[in-house]
Amino acid sequence: MADLIVEGAELEALVGGLGPAGFAAETPAAGWTVAHQVAHLAWTDRWTLLAVRDPAGFAAALGREFADGAAAVDRGAAEGVGEDPAALLERWRAGRAEVAAALAEVPPDVRVPWFGPPMKARSMLTARLMETWAHGQDVADALGVERVPTDRLRHVAHLGVRTVGFAFAAHGRPAPDVPFRFDLRSPGGESWCWGAADAADRVSGPALDFCLLVTQRRHRDDLALTARGEAARAWLPIAQAFAGPPGEGRPPRRG
After folding, report:
1. Would you say residue 255 has pLDDT above 60?
2. Looking at residue 196, what DSSP letter applies?
């Protein structure tokens, strides 16, 4: 929770001094400006609060709002377009504080409904951090800012590891029946490892690149990641740590 709070504060510091022109800047997400990115985070916080406080109401709203598929996500993001930047920031600030407080009260063994599988509060916090970091990357790219990676990336990487099976299912493919090994290099040069040390299917490289892959903020050809084994190589192009239908990803930056 402490890392989620810091992640949100750092993104707010990045956009806090922007005026209307800055919030109108186009981000790498097609059709989304900086305002869309911030408004999306505020919109997702509202859904999080509904899921925690009224699971039945969440299910009903999900069926109603998403009757036309993922278009609801774009509608939610569009709420911020044209809104006064200060008002949008205050709405997002209040919402994320309320989410942190609400999730702190969820018993450890209770699963909260979500757009994907239900999650415990700890996993929900991890997912909110992943979303904040990923949309923050879009904002940083739009503003031409190079963010300094931190050890908070471990949360994003962990979610990427845990969603291997989900990524295959999202593409209508069975999950691999072989173990994976992940060997990542942290921003500080330490080794972050998941999975059996003798697994034949392995993914290795910088943790930052891994997080950019699983949040689909960079094309795999632009990342220094290595995959060994048929299953690992099949996973690399479909990796997805976020809930919902398969993302379109980003085109490669180089030819």
Report:
1. no
2. -
